[in-house]
Amino acid sequence: MATTGHGPRGPLAGVRVVELAGIGPGPFAAMLLADLGADVVRVDRPGGAGLGIDPAYDLTNRNKRSVLVDLKAEGGADTVLDLVRRADVLIEGYRPGVAERLGVGPAACLERNPQLVYGRMTGWGQDGPLAERAGHDIAYIALTGTLSMIGAPGEPPTVPANLVGDYAGGSLYLVIGVLAALQHARTPGGAGQVVDAAIVDGAAHLATMIHGMLAAGSWQDRRGSNLLDGGCPFYGTYETADGLHMAVGPLEQRFYEQFVTLLGIADKAPDRNDPGRWEELRTVVADRFRTRTRTEWTEVFEGTDACVAPVLSLREAPRHPHLAARSTYVEHGGLIQPAPAPRFSATPASVRSGPALPGADTEDVATDWGVPGLSTTGKETTG
């Protein structure tokens, strides 16, 4: 397991980001910017964000610094605007209108810094009939049709944690938008702008290929009936003799031939090109996988192009030889965690510091960013 510390900063070194503390996709987006080298200052509120996790273990706050500012107190908004004056990017995840009421909305911030990229992270977006409604990942992916595709036929949709909505449809699209807007702001004649990143927009966009297949008639609008949604017997998971699972995905014919040969069913497997026999084929494959343990099947398929892999748990994954060789997971401060991604040949990124504890960096940021009033605000909000 690789360890990290005072490593290289990454390609965003020199970029300054103000993050107004929130939960979920906003902090993850800010973490990604911090992983890539940006100087991210998280503005925490007194009393915390209500996430319910010990800040010392909140890995989405790694590589950041934290200051305490009470935006509802007199002078709180002015202190944040002083940070904004020196920033390149601001990220907030409030409901529409909240930042404006606190005095740190886009108009106030862009007046203070016309080159600022103002990133807004919400579930429903800044406008529309549901904009003011509360929500969570599961509701956003439900409305976009994304959730309907996940799970077995005849069963309720499977909840994919909050990876598809919050982080894929939310955080990653916010980061893409922020970096694109930052590029525009830095071009001759460019200026700052607002990036409206809504999880419903991103989750819908993720299914672009599926919508094309649906229009072409090659995708059925029924869960578990298609090539990539578990409906296909050679693209799914199978239980092994020890109650664990193997993932199977030999879509191409040449890979499939290796798969059925190594599985030992080449002479009895029904025609894979006949969807009418898919359930029969699924039964043959499932029965065979249940004859050996996950470890035994892993050894059978090791080093082949049969496109079969063991389904590992979160604790098992860092020990896999391939992931260990690539240092896909690293250890910092005793915490094993995913390494920054993607990778850069000239400006590598690293985990440089652990989770920022609320207010712990107030004095340093006040000095580094040249905001002397921040120190006073920090002392007032903690006293």
Question: What labels would you give this structure?
Answer:
single chain; elongated; 383 residues; 6-stranded parallel β-sheet; alpha/beta
Draw up the topology in text.
Layout: E1 2-3, E2 16-20, H1 25-35, E3 39-44, E4 64-68, H2 76-85, E5 89-92, H3 98-102, H4 106-112, E6 117-122, H5 137-143, H6 163-185, E7 193-198, H7 199-206, H8 208-216, E8 236-239, E9 245-248, H9 253-263, H10 278-289, H11 294-301, E10 308-310, H12 321-325, E11 329-332, E12 335-338, H13 362-368, H14 372-382
Parallel strand pairs: 1-11, 2-3, 2-5, 3-4, 5-6, 6-7
Antiparallel strand pairs: 8-9, 9-10, 11-12
Helix pairs in contact: 1-6, 5-6, 5-7, 6-7, 13-14
SSE string, helix = H, strand = E? Answer: EEHEEHEHHEHHEHHEEHHHEHEEHH
**Tally of alpha and pi helices:** 14
Shape field = elongated
The count of strands amounts to: 12
Instruction: Kindly name the structural category.
Output: alpha/beta
- Provide the β-strand percentage band: 5-15%
Mean pLDDT: 94
Assembly type of the chains comes to single chain
* Terminal-residue CA separation: 41 Å
Low-confidence stretches: none
Radius of gyration: 24 Å
- Overall helicity: 25-40%
Q: How are the strands ordered across the major sheet?
A: 4-3-2-5-6-7
